[in-house]
Amino acid sequence: METSFFKENNLSEAAKLIQAGELVAFPTETVYGLGADALNEEAVKKVYAAKGRPSDNPLIVHIARREELESLVAEIPAIAEPLIKKFWPGPLTLIFKAKPGFFSTSVTAGLESVAIRMPDNSLTLKLIQLAERPLVGPSANTSGRPSPTSAEHVYHDLEGKIAGIIDGGATGIGLESTVLDLTSPENPLILRPGAITQQDLKEVLGKDVTYDHHLIGKEEAPKAPGMKYTHYAPEEPVILVKGTDYNLWRKAITHYLEQGETIGILANEEIISKVKSEVEDVFSLGLKANVNEASHSLYAGLRFFEKTKVTLILAEACEINDNTRAYMNRLEKSAGGKYF
């Protein structure tokens, strides 16, 4: 299969591919999504095949208008309304009780819930409107790898496996959406951290919102992507180094060089300025203490080293708080929780 590129001037062609049951990757404010008609079970199955994605990992459904929501879910709890008004379109996925029998189990992973979001990207909103279909949209990458934040990343992973890619340039946020479970409205749970923080949600709802920390069992289907399986991992092993203490970084570099590793450094400018004489391949996450810049660059950085001779990546970790939780969630998963 030839994978074509699309821009704004030929979005109608991409929409026709969606209607025909084909896969088209689209840009969002978070990462690129792999689009398919959410109401076409065979098309949705192609998403799992193209990505190599486990079938018990549910998909997020993307819509372009608030009015579409009523037809897709069993009920819209009152708690959802202020969240929708404040954060849609934007990087917030809401989980509702699913309308029985409406979506195939390929979308819901057999759960009685469905995840919905409205992306903040004009190209993708227009695509959904032209296709006249809600779209599933997991990250447009091979399952388990760093998510794509450019059309080039998508092409690298899925060339020949999907019909098209809408090139919207680099994504803005760079990390996947916050996922909030509203199936028990009295106890909303954050299933995946993102750019919309716990404090952001609390300010809108006027009540505390907690994280779901329970471990997903081997036979249990996760309610949201990113909860169960290996995610965000590049080809090279990642080891985390906490903080900016140069002595600790130098100790880590010396340790792995003595083991015969070729090291890459993924860190802020201050750390890189201190270690670049000892390590050839480095990727900057931006200025020190700028977590938004680091989040925006994280996946591109993890992918960067695949074009080098690096055999091990040392990546900068930081203290976890409300603002850094999403960044550290993705980084720790990419490293399998391994620290120096």
Automatic annotation (TrEMBL):
One of its GO terms (biological process) is tRNA processing. It comes from the Bacteria. InterPro entries: DHBP_synth_RibB-like_a/b_dom, Sua5-like_dom, Sua5/YwlC_C, Sua5_C, T(6)A37_SUA5, TC-AMP_synthase_SUA5. Residues 8-196 form the YrdC-like domain. It catalyses: L-threonine + hydrogencarbonate + ATP = L-threonylcarbamoyladenylate + diphosphate + H2O. GO terms for molecular function: ATP binding; double-stranded RNA binding; L-threonylcarbamoyladenylate synthase; tRNA binding. This is Threonylcarbamoyl-AMP synthase. It comes from Carnobacterium maltaromaticum LMA28. The gene is ywlC.
